[in-house]
């Protein structure tokens, strides 16, 4: 229900439900270049880039609203998402947008 509440109160932008918008959020400011943390993999794991003044590698899931930071080069964003928020429907389903019904 947190996801619906967040949409209704405007705290999350619905566009980030879609891969292309999540991917586009990763600007040149994204500090990681390792293969595991490429923007494509982060967006596929459900995250959009959500930095603030103090944390340059913060990402947020628009589905469960979990934010993660402090990424290490060998982290797997899918695994980290699932470990940190086991109730996230996006992380649990891991379906392509075309498969959503």
TrEMBL record:
One Pfam short name: BIR
Alphabetized UniProt keyword annotations: Metal-binding, Zinc
Keyword Metal-binding (UniProt): yes
InterPro entries: Baculoviral_IAP, BIR_rpt
Source superkingdom: Eukaryota
Keyword Metal-binding annotated: yes
GO molecular function: metal ion binding
Transmembrane segments annotated in the record for this chain: none
Name the record gives this protein: BIR51 protein
């Amino acid at each position: 229900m947190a996801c619906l509440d967040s949409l209704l109160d405007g705290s999350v932008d619905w566009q980030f439900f879609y891969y292309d918008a999540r991917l586009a959020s990763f600007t040149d400011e994204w500090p990681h270049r390792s293969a595991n943390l490429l923007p494509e993999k982060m967006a596929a794991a459900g995250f959009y880039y959500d930095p603030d003044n103090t944390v340059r590698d913060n990402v947020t899931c628009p589905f469960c609203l979990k934010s993660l930071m402090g990424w290490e080069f060998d982290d797997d964003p899918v695994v980290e998402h699932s470990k940190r928020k086991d109730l996230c429907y996006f992380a649990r389903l891991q379906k392509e947008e075309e498969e959503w019904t």
